[in-house]
Design a protein that fits this description.
The complex is a heterodimer of chains A (199) and B (133). Helix content of chain A is 77%, strand content 0%. Chain A is mainly α. Chain A has a single domain, classed as Four Helix Bundle (Hemerythrin (Met), subunit A). In chain A, helix 1 crosses helix 2, helix 1 packs parallel to helix 6 and helix 5 runs antiparallel to helix 6. With 133 residues, chain B is mainly α. Chain B is 62% helix and 0% strand. In chain B, helix 1 packs antiparallel against helix 2. The chains are: A mainly alpha (199), B mainly alpha (133).
Chain lengths: 199, 133
């Protein structure tokens, strides 16, 4: 497929500008989440009792299901890019559709997880669990917002792929793929940090 | 994939299988008992370090294969390494207060076991306590 891509306008790096821009954005996103993780670990060490008690109300099985969903959607996203580069529009639609299903599945599981917390009265405002659940809702909430942020352009691309002209922009899909894999990467750290790290 | 790097599908499948396996290992390391104490490091601290190491391995797999860092211009890697390094420094580097954490954990675990007699120190009844909801 490289023959079909004209990178003459990037003579030095041979990297599409959109990808460089996305990596720059992801670098800033990484710093954004660094603040959460760093603060979480400092406060965990200094408020271990409260964090220890509160963490045992989390449902790590649902989080595990979400982990597998995100890993699977990362695979399907990579496959979607692969198929689009080979102009296999039908396969592209299938894999992008599966990725979108994965995103919806993640959000549905997250809804059930939040509902259980709501039902049990586990909010950041509750005295004993204030600090831990502040981090829980902040980190998982921002992560879920990132999932929604990836879902919207995916839906747009899928919709466009069904039009007569199709969606023949592999670089754009690959750039979105970078973002989607980043969402997966952040969950790889959030899952053990919130759900498993407490012995 | 802005470069042609042959049939990458087997690599994708291998990475997917590796990620699934590593995820199961992460849960196992956290839930199935603790590692034995090693020198001055308690076993449950080893659990955390192992969990973190597995997470880092998974991240490397995703970045190099799924995100095509392995196939892209090497210049891009340096563009990625710097923020990743800063992420680890800011998230974990300044916070490795193992001494305080270990002593806090010991007190907490003792108190927890006094409050919850019959339960294991991981808060479970021999199973997955965290899955009660």
């Amino acid at each position: 497929m490289s023959a079909a891509l004209n990178l003459s306008h990037e003579p030095v790096t041979k990297i599409p500008h959109g990808k460089v821009a996305m990596w720059t954005f992801l670098a800033s996103e990484l710093m954004f989440f660094s603040g959460f993780f760093g603060t979480f670990i400092v406060l965990r060490n200094t408020n271990y009792d409260a964090f220890f008690e509160a963490s045992h109300h989390l449902n790590w099985v649902l989080a595990l299901v979400n982990t597998f969903i995100l890993i699977g959607s990362s695979l399907t996203m990579a496959m979607a890019i692969y198929q689009l580069e080979r102009r296999q529009n039908g396969q592209f639609q299938v894999y992008l559709g599966l990725t979108i299903l994965g995103a919806f599945g993640f959000l549905i599981v997250k809804y059930f997880e939040y509902s259980a917390k709501w039902h049990d009265g586990l909010f950041p405002s509750q005295d004993n669990h204030t600090l831990f659940y502040s981090f829980y809702f902040l980190m998982t909430g921002f992560h879920a917002l990132h999932v929604v942020g990836g879902l919207i352009p995916m839906l747009f691309m899928l919709f466009k792929s069904f039009t007569n002209r199709g969606y023949n922009h592999p670089i754009k899909v690959e750039t979105l793929g970078l973002y989607w894999h980043f969402v997966d990467l952040m969950w790889i750290f959030i899952f053990p940090a919130l759900y498993l790290i407490f012995p | 994939m802005s470069h042609d790097h042959g049939n990458i599908l087997p690599s994708y499948r291998k990475v997917f299988a590796t990620l699934c396996t590593m995820t199961i290992l992460t849960v196992a390391a956290a839930k199935l008992g603790h590692f034995p104490d090693m020198l001055f490091i308690p076993g449950y601290v080893v659990n955390i370090v192992v969990g973190l190491a597995i997470a880092v391995f998974k991240v490397v797999c995703v970045m190099y294969i799924f995100m095509h860092l392995k196939f892209d211009n090497p210049m891009l890697r340096f563009f990625v390494y710097v923020p990743v390094f800063l992420f680890f420094v800011m998230s974990f580097g300044f916070n490795l207060e193992f001494g305080n954490t270990v002593s806090n954990n010991k007190v907490t675990r003792t108190v927890y076991e006094q409050k919850h007699p019959g339960e294991h120190h991981d808060g479970s009844h021999g199973g997955a306590h965290g899955a009660k909801h």
